[in-house]
Design brief:
Elements: E1 19-21, E2 24-28, E3 36-43, E4 49-55, E5 61-64, E6 67-70, E7 74-82, E8 90-100, E9 106-117, E10 145-146, E11 149-150, H1 154-168, H2 187-206
Parallel strand pairs: 2-9
Antiparallel strand pairs: 1-3, 3-7, 4-6, 4-8, 5-7, 8-9, 10-11
Helix pairs in contact: 1-2
């Protein structure tokens, strides 16, 4: 006799975990296509299992293959069809039981809720189709345009003009000039101005 196995996720202590999908069935009164649902039972174990489907309202449902065998590492789809007219909301319960092959002792069980709902199921929201992003070499630069012309920030042009004038001013203790001393720039100051002018020139060329 095969020893019992225990695992987290079982319904009761000592029971074999039961893997099924889905765990809830929804039947809609105004949708005929929803009167048939499918429950998939999985057997991830290394031996064959027997299954049985029980219900609290067996007269309302027709279960195709309500019991049978599931081979190791296989699954089986159980079709559950609602037989009665779906006029009123109701809730029923199914129970999936698992047995060792050739044994009548229940190894594990899991419950499935069955609901009858009014109306029709909501239509799924259509997904936006995925599109390929443009490659970097084919990507069109984005610039603010007005009247077909590129817009240049006036501040950039002003900074460029100020830097150009500053470089034309005489150098302190190097050039002789009649300009006031405060208009003489040191070599270090002119290097900074030249660096700023280079950055502004790159911005202008980008446009």
């Amino acid at each position: 006799m095969r020893p019992r196995q225990t695992s987290q996720g079982s319904d009761d202590d000592g029971n074999l975990p039961v893997f099924i999908s889905p765990t809830e069935l929804k039947y809609y009164a105004d949708d005929i296509s929803a009167h048939k649902q499918v429950v998939t039972i999985y057997n991830p174990y290394s031996y064959t299992l027997k299954y049985k489907v029980l219900c609290t309202a067996p007269r309302k449902y027709h279960v195709i293959e309500s019991e049978g065998l599931i081979k190791s590492h296989c699954r089986i789809d159980v079709v559950i069809r609602h037989k009665e007219p779906l006029e009123q909301s109701s809730i029923d319960k199914f129970q999936i039981q698992l047995f060792d092959h050739g044994s009548s002792a229940v190894r594990g069980h899991k419950q499935v809720i069955s609901q009858v709902l009014p109306g029709k199921p909501m239509a799924p929201v259509p997904e936006t189709p995925l599109q390929q992003l443009p490659s970097p070499e084919n990507r069109v630069p984005e610039h603010n345009t007005e009247g077909g012309q590129h817009r240049m920030d006036p501040l950039v042009l002003l900074v460029a003009a100020v830097c150009g004038v500053a470089l034309l001013l005489p150098t302190w203790q190097v050039d002789s000039s009649t300009l006031p001393p405060y208009l003489h720039l040191t070599i270090h100051q002119k290097l900074v101005v030249a660096y700023v002018l280079g950055l502004v020139t790159m911005v202008i060329l980008h446009f």
